[in-house]
Amino acid sequence: MLVARLLGSALVVVALLASPLHAADYYVKNGGNDGLDGLTLATAWATLNHAADQVDPGDTVHVQNGNYQGFYLDRSGSPGSPITFVADGDAVAITSDNGTTPDGINLEGASHVVIDGFIVNDRTRAGIRAVLGSHVTVRNCSAGYNGRWGILTGFVDDFTAESNETHHSVAEHGIYVSNSGDRPILRGNHSHDNFANGIHMNGDASLGGDGVISNALVERNVIHGNGTGGGSGINMDGVVNSVVRNNLLYDNHASGISMYRIDGGA
Predict the structure, then answer these.
(1) Could you write out the three-class secondary structure of 126-183?
(2) Per-residue pLDDT, 12
(3) Is the pLDDT reported for residue 2 higher than 70?
(4) pLDDT tens digits, residue range 166-223?
């Protein structure tokens, strides 16, 4: 009888350990309070940085219309349970840098993350930056007039950018996939009037890694008006075994599509 009871208790403990943690929906709004639980609109948090410090795999942060300081996220989701930050309206704007880096939204070593629907304009360096992670998706965002890039990745495998608008980057590119991140998907973006390239991919062998971006898919993007400072609509250095198809490019000031090796590993 004692053995049976002990076995039963052990099975309960194993079952509890095996059960997934419950994913939560959190809310952020202007006029919220970071001292509350964030679980309803009535108890919403005030800042995105506070939300970024609280989230766990599977959690979704719903952000209401308004102006916000950006956020710095160094926490990761997990396969099938990403951390998601989503704009619940069409006027959710990041109007100041995140406080740690000179970017609007910064993902630092964060994997399995989705960023959806934010307006990120006039940031010091990048509108949205993701480095040293994997399985990051940026969709439905607008990034304009940022100091260097609209969207930047570095050493990020399995990055997806879809249905974003990146425009009027002051010093460089609309979307920049850098530092040998493999399997990027750039789909359905509108990248225009950036100083250099509309979309730029560079394996950056001089910065470590293998210097190669492989198995990229670049499709159904509309790219125009880029390159007043030189560059291309779609620019690829060290990109191999990839597909570029069904993109519309026009009125770019230098090249349309460029493929070459300068700082690429192949």
Answers:
(1) EEEEEECCECEEEECCEEECCCCEEEEEECCECCEEECCEEECCCCCCCEEEECCCCC
(2) 41
(3) no
(4) 999 999 999 999 999 999 999 999 999 999 999 999 999 999 999 999 999 999 999 9
pTM score: 0.92
Q: How far is CA 2 from CA 7, 8, 15, 90, 257, in A?
A: 9, 10, 20, 61, 74
Buried residues in 4-31 as b, exposed as e (16+ CB within 10 A): eeeeeeeeeeeeeeeeeeebeebbbbee
What would the two tokens of residue 218 be?
């670049």
Answer whether residue 135 shows pLDDT above 80: yes
Distance CA 27, CA 151 (A): 25
What are the b/e assignments for 75-99, b being 16+ CB within 10 Å? bbbeeeebbbbbbbeeebbbeebbe
DSSP letter string, the chain: -HHHHHHHHHHHHHHHHHSPPPP-EEEE-TT--TTS--SSSTT-BS-HHHHHHH--TT-EEEE-SEEEE-EEE----BTTB-EEEEESSS-EEEEE--SSSSSSEEEES--SEEEES-EEES-SSEEEEEES-BSEEEES-EEES-SSEEEEEES-BS-EEES-EEE--SSS-SEEEESS--S-EEES-EEES-SS-SEEEE--GGGSS-S-EES-EEES-EEES--TTS-EEEEEESEES-EEES-EEES-SSEEEEEE-SSS--
Torsion of CA 96, 98, 101, 105, to 10 degrees: -100
